[in-house]
Amino acid sequence: ELNEELSRQLDEFKKMPALYHLALKELENKVETLKTEWKMRDGYSPIEHIKSRVKEPKSILQKLERKGYALSFENIETHIHDIAGMRIVCAFVKDIYRLADHFSAREDIRVLEIKDYIAQPKPNGYQSLHVIVAVPLILLDGTKWVKAEIQLRTLAMDFWASMEHILYYKYDKQLPAHVADELKSAARAADELDKKMLRLRREILELS
Ligand code: 0O2
């Protein structure tokens, strides 16, 4: 019986990367369509760029352990939301919320959870809107809704998060206090830059 369960779990593990890749492709296609449509209609798209990735098995297992769950296929599916991950970088903060609202209104995307680290940045200064979604994959046995995490950020937020990622890993997860303070102040500077660009945009629009 144990062997049967083990072999079922192994089968599920083997299928996993392909399913998440396919779900990401479906999601990419939806977002590309939006981007093109926006460009045709308004002359510009609020989506600057898109990046997606499937989480490495090693990182999935590390995250599961960090969260305190036993290793099983069910625990991975239930508790790890970002196996399929997409990052959408936008020009302005309001574009981020516009996109999130659009996702919520669609029938071919289920919004499961929204974590608003823009309204409430993380203690280290991290800002992004995380939208956990499920997208339908039509398989031979029927429709399977596959989870994905969409991180929506402005260019300034993305710049900060990318730099923080580099610096954080360089210090092997132990940041000296003054570096952490400087990083937080850099996050505030990024936020100021976003606000300044928004003010400039308003002025420019008023000119035309
Ligand atoms: P990687 O290597 O980027 O994939 P939970 O809400 O606890 O169930 P989770 O997934 O821990 O789940 O939540 P959270 O906080 O929404 O973070 C998910 C992802 O957001 C992270 O994935 C990062 O990609 C990004 N992120 C969150 N906080 C920070 C931060 O302080 N700095 C940077 N640069 N990115 C951050 P991973 O798996 O941690 O990492």
From TrEMBL:
<protein>
    <recommendedName>
        <fullName>RelA/SpoT domain-containing protein</fullName>
    </recommendedName>
</protein>
<dbReference type="Pfam" id="PF04607">
    <property type="entry name" value="RelA_SpoT"/>
</dbReference>
<dbReference type="GO" id="GO:0015970">
    <property type="term" value="P:guanosine tetraphosphate biosynthetic process"/>
</dbReference>
<comment type="pathway">
    <text>Purine metabolism; ppGpp biosynthesis; ppGpp from GTP: step 1/2.</text>
</comment>
<feature type="domain" description="RelA/SpoT">
    <location>
        <begin position="52"/>
        <end position="175"/>
    </location>
</feature>
<dbReference type="InterPro" id="IPR052366">
    <property type="entry name" value="GTP_Pyrophosphokinase"/>
</dbReference>
<dbReference type="InterPro" id="IPR043519">
    <property type="entry name" value="NT_sf"/>
</dbReference>
<dbReference type="InterPro" id="IPR007685">
    <property type="entry name" value="RelA_SpoT"/>
</dbReference>
